[in-house]
Specification:
about 450 residues; alpha/beta; 9 helices; 15 strands; signal-anchor; membrane; Trichome birefringence-like N-terminal domain-containing protein
Length: about 450
């Protein structure tokens, strides 16, 4: 059974609420001092009229959080009350970009550049209320002991993003077909979407393949369909790997041939979320024009060693070329690279992710490899938008740039809680961590908030 909601407040959240409680008195005092100061300046002479306006909207104070470092029960150092979440009341600060007003996003608001701020009301759904959360992402049921990671929301600088409105979304999608095409991060994203919309209407499974990696759901009252299509490379691939990442042979990637399981269904889609990424870092043999051209870290030493950046760029180019040249024009959101947060090793060498709070901007460190792949995505996306192709425009192609908001959430992964109660036999157990996918509810929900805002702007 899932845990009922909300969980008992942690000391960190109690500290938040204390801060909020005293905020009213502090705000009154602050406003009195400001008004008194302005009155004195007005009496001083005309120069007073040159004072810049205060940056805080309607005189409101904001809460700014500093992240902690450890996860209780996960092998990390338990954070204290003081260093887990430290709040200060500020009148103007880093949450607001210069010369921008707070409020709903306007045309000039960058939805993808901002930071995570406290959100005391918590998530829109729970692990008890949503049946679509799969076991590896069901962190609370699997025994994750902390819950502070649930109480943050993504805030672009200078504006706010309204939370996902399930009823409005479903009403606007009557008779439509959404497809989520890509890897397991897209499956993670799909779970989030289903959890959000199922608050209004529950979905019925109408199709699944033999592995359950490709599936389809239908919402009968709204005649709304959601398809999940497994295509981790977007191009044709022969994969010899089990669910634990163990391979019996090298991947075979045909970089100039699209995976037919999504391309063949293209004309049935009205909206698409498409993404690829981390799979390109795996050992693989590369094919073009029906012939082997090289490989990445493969066992066949007769093949030319090639960087994964090459295959990533080629696959994206092929996918974007198909999208912009196709006569059928669904609205397509390309979701950008998701960085992992393994520390002290990788997934195969004991890496962990025990943090319990988001990074502040600048704290994530040098991410040369992640930034390199992210740059390739944006370059290929820009080329596709600039090249309208023979069948019309690329206006249907939208960039869902979730890189920054993902990078700042090292606390949002299952970590050791990808399996049920991993420390049941003791805290010294060696446990495989997942520092790439996201707990549900969790940070990945923000992607759907942003999609809804992008739909509203259009």
């Amino acid at each position: 059974m899932g845990m009922e909601w909300p969980p008992a407040p942690t000391p960190a959240l109690q500290l938040q609420r204390k801060a909020a409680a005293v905020g009213g008195s502090a705000l009154k005092l602050l406003l009195f001092v400001i008004l008194a100061g302005l009155a004195l300046r007005l009496l001083a002479g005309p120069a007073a009229y040159l004072l810049p306006p205060t940056a805080a909207p309607d005189g409101a104070a904001r809460l700014v959080a500093a992240p902690g470092i450890g996860r209780t029960g996960g092998g990390g150092t338990p954070p204290s009350e003081a260093d887990d979440l430290i709040f200060a009341v500020t009148g103007s600060g880093p949450l607001t970009a210069p010369d921008k007003k707070e409020g709903s996003p306007g045309k000039n608001c960058n939805l993808f550049h901002g930071e995570w701020v406290p959100h005391l009301s918590g998530p829109a759904y729970t692990n008890a209320s949503c049946r679509f959360i799969e076991s590896p992402q069901n962190c609370m049921t699997n025994g994750r002991p902390d819950s502070d990671y649930l109480y943050w929301r993504w805030k672009p600088y200078g504006c706010d993003i309204p939370l996902f409105d399930s009823k409005e979304f479903l009403d606007g999608m009557r008779g439509k077909h959404w497809a989520l095409i890509g890897d397991s991060i897209l499956r993670n994203h799909m779970q989030s979407l289903l959890c959000l919309v199922s608050k209004v209407e529950d979905a019925t499974v109408v199709y699944h393949d033999s592995t359950f990696k490709s599936r389809r759901w239908h919402f009968p009252s709204h005649n709304f369909t959601v398809s999940l299509i497994w295509a981790p490379f977007l191009v044709k691939a022969k994969i010899f790997e089990d669910d634990d990442g163990v391979s019996t042979a090298d991947l075979q990637l045909h970089l100039d041939v699209l995976e037919t399981n999504w391309a063949s269904q293209w004309e049935s889609f009205d909206y698409v979320v498409i993404s690829t990424g981390q799979w390109f870092l795996k050992t693989a043999v590369y094919w073009e024009n029906g012939a082997e051209i090289g490989c990445h870290s493969c066992k066949n030493k007769n093949l030319k060693e090639m960087a994964p950046e090459y295959s990533f760029r080629k696959a994206l180019s092929a996918a974007f070329r198909f999208i912009v040249s196709s006569p059928h024009k669904p609205v397509v959101f390309y979701r950008t690279w998701t960085p992992s947060h393994f520390e002290h090793g990788e997934w195969f060498s004991g890496g962990t992710c025990n943090r319990t709070s988001p990074f502040k901007p600048g704290e994530a460190g040098d991410r040369e490899s992640d930034n390199k792949m992210w740059k390739i995505e944006r370059e290929e996306f820009d080329k596709a938008v600039a090249n309208k192709g023979p069948n019309g425009s690329a206006d249907c192609l939208k960039l869902l740039d979730t890189f920054e908001l993902s990078l700042l959430r090292p606390d949002g992964h299952p970590g050791p809680y990808r399996t049920y109660h991993p420390y049941e036999k003791g805290m010294t157990a060696k446990v495989q961590n997942d520092c790439l996918h996201w707990c549900l509810p969790g940070p990945i929900d923000a992607g759907n908030d942003i999609i809804m805002q992008m739909l509203a702007k259009d």
